[in-house]
Protein: Hydrolase
Organism: Streptococcus ferus
Amino acid sequence: MIKMIAIDLDGTLLNRHKKIPAENIKAIQKAAQEGIKIVLCTGRPQSGVEPYFKDLDLGHQAEYAVLNNGCSTHQIEKGKWELLSYHELSLDDIQGLERLIAQNHQIELTLTEANHFLVMGQSVSDLVAYDASLVFTKAKPISFKGLKALKTPIFQAMYMGEEANLDQFERSVDDRLSSQFSTVRSQSYLYEVMPKGITKASGLKALAEHLLINPRDIMAIGDAPNDLEMLSFAGLSVAMGNASESIRQAADKVSLTNDEAGVAYAIETWALGSNDV
């Protein structure tokens, strides 16, 4: 019996236009009304999730979000967001990450914290500005001295660059970084760095334990490499039809694409069981 549904956003809940199909909203509301906990699990920060959570209009009962690729977990009740737990990168971590691009002007280091989208440096490139716009905020340049003065947790870091440049950078540093941190290439232009052992799956696991929900009663839906651990953790894993072959092969089920309201199909078929398939 499914008691919790963990749902990725980009490429999963959202269609190619970054909108939630009406069918997805209807199916999620129906699941919530039947007592199934809805958990949005994404690499996005809070600013990039709040508008979508409002669109879901889940009423006054408590629902949850695992954000920043597992670095922060939030409870949302009556429209109010509460940070339940988090993991952070240290200043020493960030200083080390910055050193890796000291002589590489084709790669930028960005950081997310509770209220800001930051880029290490003196200016904001078009690529960083574009990524910040996707999460409904603006990137702010910051120095290491300015970062120390913030005194707020930095959840995760993201290296950004054009695909070919980031490919080369990832090849040169991944062995070193993956031994110290959790890393994932979530988009062609994004190479993400989190505290060691922190993934969407670790955040989902901690939340499930908090809510006394067994992993076998969790359905997870995703499409990208940063969803793999989450899909493996859940008792029922569903890959979107638009996911790569490797993601689809790793999942128990394959749904329709994100442009075909694949989340709604997955919920109706395997969580609520209303489709005869």
Summary: The chain has a mean pLDDT of 95.
